[in-house]
Amino acid sequence: MNTSHLMVCLFVLLCIATACKPLTRPPRVVFETPMGAITAEIYPEQAPVTAVNFLKLVDEGVYGNHKTVFYRVVRMNNQSGEVKIEVIQGGLSDRDVVAPIPHETTEDTGILHLDGTLSMARSKPGTASSEFFICIGDQPELDFGGKRNPDGVGFAAFGRVVEGMDVVKKIQQQKDMDQYLVEPVPITSIHRLP
Q1: Where are the strands (E) in the chain, listed by range?
Q2: Exposure of 176 by Cβ count < 10 A (0-12 exposed, 13-18 middle, 19+ buried)?
Q3: Closest among 64, 72, 7 to 32, alpha carbons compared
Q4: Separation of alpha carbons 128 and 132, rounded Å
Q5: Calpha distance 177→48 (Å, rounded)
Q6: 154-168, pLDDT tens digit by residue?
Q7: Which class for 118: exposed (0-12), middle (13-18), buried (19 or more C-beta within 10 A)?
Q8: Which pLDDT belongs to residue 137?
C-alpha cells in the first residue's frame, strides 16, 4: 500500500471515529412491588427537566420507605367523557413534600405517550412534582395538542417501561372505586440499575 492510500485510509478511520459517539444506554430504574418488578428507561437527554427531577427523587430516596404506591387505575370501563385513556398512576402518599417543576411538552421532547410510556401527572401546567403514570396502549390524547385536558398542552413524558408491562396490566385490573384502588399497591422501592 502506497503512502497516499495509507493517508486516505487513516483519514477515513479518523472521520468514522470522530462521528461515532460511544453507545450509552439510558438510565434504568426498577419499581419493586408485591405484584412484581417494572423496569423503565429514563430519558434525561430528551426531557432534561422532568427526567432529571425524577432521577433526583429516586437517588435521594424520596420514593423509598414505603411512602410510594400505585393508587389510581384508569380503564375504558371506569371513566366517562369522550376522551378515554388507560393508565396506572402512582407517587408519594404525602404529595406536598416535593416542589413542582416546569412543564415539558411532548412537542419539546419528542417522547410520545405510547404503550409503556412513563409520564408526570399534573393538574395544570407547571404543577407536576412527584406523581407519575404509565400508559397502557398508545395514548395520543395525552400528547401536546391532545384533548384529555382542556389546556391542550398534554403531559410530560420522560421514560418508557422496558420490562414488566404484565405487572402494569395486573395492577390496572385491581378492584377500584371511582378509579382509586380499594387497596393501593405498595411500591417498596424505586432504584437505579447499575
Answers
A1: 28-33, 36-42, 68-74, 87-92, 117-120, 132-135, 156-163, 176-177, 180-187, 189-192
A2: middle
A3: 64
A4: 9
A5: 35
A6: 999 999 999 999 999
A7: buried
A8: 97
99-122: pLDDT as tens digits: 999 999 999 999 999 999 999 999
Rounded to whole angstroms, the Cα distance separating 65 from 44 reads 25
- pTM above the 0.85 mark? yes
Question: Using CA atoms, how far apart are residues 189 and 99, in angstroms rounded to an integer?
Answer: 21
Do residues 86 and 137 lie in contact, with contact meaning Cβ atoms separated by under 8 Å? yes
Report the C-alpha gap between 111 and 56 in whole angstroms: 20
Strand 117-120 versus strand 68-74 pairing type: unpaired
Whether 191 and 59 have beta carbons less than 8 Å apart is answered as: no
3-state secondary structure of 33: strand
C-alpha grid cell for residue 128? 407536576
